[in-house]
């Protein structure tokens, strides 16, 4: 199948002329990008279709809420395109394109004209990582690394594998969902995974399936090919209003991921990003959805953690009782031993700052 990329909302056949006119105003602020494969998954007769919700703009995005960089990634930027927030992990941004632009993306600032956070030349990033032997884990994200050419990807992977202390390479990608043919039709890509995923130093492919309908036969075949090439597959998704914000939809997703060998890894609390209020679910509601979903899945699917990527660290959301909500730091920049934190309940709370701590 030939997949064509679309960057103008006016070229989306499933929308009426009036919808295109109204949504153009949204895309002038938050860019639109999709492709013919992913758009073909939408049931256009259903206005609440979850695939439509993921990729098609909504006028709700114009509501003023949030910021461009809610996790303050700028604070941890140590070199062009390189973030070093946690001692053993570096995040590198090599690309500002994706197979489609998720409407709830927390890093949508990368796709706005004039942004200069990504790095095209990998050498400065590789040099920084080489000079920091504490880094054993490198996450390549951004934009989607599987939209890089095979030659650029090979340069990056070979450069990282030349650094002995780098043990894990992670590729953060939604291409198996957005365009599985990137994997199905490219044997060279799979050879690269096979070449650089060693028995003692694996490549992890961190996929982003948000709803079970994305798990098409083509997507499942793409996952299978990555597994056969030697990659370890983990899935992470935000909790998204109108997509996976019910126990049934979430349990179906994580069950099916466990069936195909894509370990459910993180469910993220949606970050308070500019334009994302309509896609966000309050934390307390998220806990109820999360806990109810886990009741009907196996232990293999139950490895999912509900977390918040806050500027002060990665926070695991543990649960609530009649009075309080409980969280703990899963990871911190300074490596402190995590402590359970107790806060007053707030049904309208979306982010850490919305909760008042209780002294213990």
Task: Draw up the topology in text.
Blueprint: E1 5-6, H1 17-27, E2 34-35, H2 36-39, H3 50-55, E3 77-79, E4 82-86, E5 89-95, H4 123-130, E6 137-142, H5 150-161, E7 168-173, H6 175-178, H7 181-184, H8 187-196, E8 203-207, H9 217-228, E9 232-238, H10 247-260, E10 263-268, H11 283-295, E11 305-310, E12 313-320, E13 324-331, E14 340-344
Parallel strand pairs: 5-6, 6-7, 7-8, 8-9, 9-10, 10-11
Antiparallel strand pairs: 1-2, 3-4, 4-5, 11-12, 12-13, 13-14
Helix pairs in contact: 5-8, 10-11
* CATH topology value: TIM Barrel
Low-confidence stretches: none
Sheet with the most strands: spatial strand order:
3-4-5-6-7-8-9-10-11-12-13-14
* Strand residues, percent: 15-25%
Distance separating the two termini: 59 Å
The description of the largest β-sheet is: 12 strands, mixed
**Mean pLDDT rating:** 95
Instruction: Please write the string of helix (H) and strand (E) elements.
Output: EHEHHEEEHEHEHHHEHEHEHEEEE
Q: Give the helix/strand class.
A: alpha/beta
CATH architecture verdict: Alpha-Beta Barrel
CATH superfamily: Aldolase class I
Number of strands: 14
Gyration radius, in Å: 20 Å
| Residues in helices, as a percent range | 25-40%
Number of helices: 11
Integer tally of domains:
1
Shape: globular
CATH class: Alpha Beta
């Amino acid at each position: 199948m030939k997949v064509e990329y679309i960057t103008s909302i006016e070229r989306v056949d499933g929308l009426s002329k009036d919808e295109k006119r109204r949504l153009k105003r949204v895309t002038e602020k938050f860019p639109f990008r999709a492709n013919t494969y992913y758009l073909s998954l939408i049931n256009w007769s259903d206005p609440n279709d979850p695939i439509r919700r993921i990729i098609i703009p909504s006028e709700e995005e114009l509501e003023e809420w949030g910021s461009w960089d809610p996790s303050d990634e700028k604070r941890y930027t140590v070199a062009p395109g390189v973030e070093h927030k946690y001692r053993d992990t570096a995040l590198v941004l090599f690309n500002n394109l994706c197979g489609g632009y998720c409407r709830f993306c927390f890093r949508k600032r990368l796709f706005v004209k004039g942004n200069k956070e990504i790095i095209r030349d990998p050498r400065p990033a590789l040099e920084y990582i080489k000079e920091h032997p504490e880094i054993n884990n490198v996450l390549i994200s951004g934009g989607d690394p599987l939209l890089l050419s095979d030659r650029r990807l090979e340069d990056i992977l070979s450069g990282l594998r030349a650094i002995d202390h780098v043990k894990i390479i992670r590729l953060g990608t939604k291409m198996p969902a957005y365009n599985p043919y990137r994997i199905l039709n490219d044997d060279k890509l799979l050879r690269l995974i096979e070449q650089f995923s060693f028995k003692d130093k694996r490549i992890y492919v961190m996929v982003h399936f948000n709803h079970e309908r994305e798990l098409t036969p083509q997507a499942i075949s793409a996952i299978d090919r990555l597994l056969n090439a030697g990659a370890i597959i983990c899935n992470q998704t935000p909790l998204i209003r109108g997509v996976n914000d019910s126990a049934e939809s979430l349990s179906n997703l994580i069950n099916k991921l466990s069936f195909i060998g894509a370990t459910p890894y993180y469910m993220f609390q949606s970050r308070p990003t500019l334009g994302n209020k309509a896609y966000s679910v309050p934390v307390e509601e998220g806990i109820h959805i999360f806990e109810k979903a886990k009741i009907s899945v196996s232990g293999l699917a139950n490895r999912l953690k509900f977390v918040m990527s806050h500027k002060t660290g990665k926070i695991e959301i543990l649960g609530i009782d009649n009075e309080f909500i409980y969280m703990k730091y899963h990871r911190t920049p300074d490596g402190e031993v995590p402590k359970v934190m107790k806060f007053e309940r707030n049904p309208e709370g979306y982010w850490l700052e919305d909760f008042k701590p209780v002294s213990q």
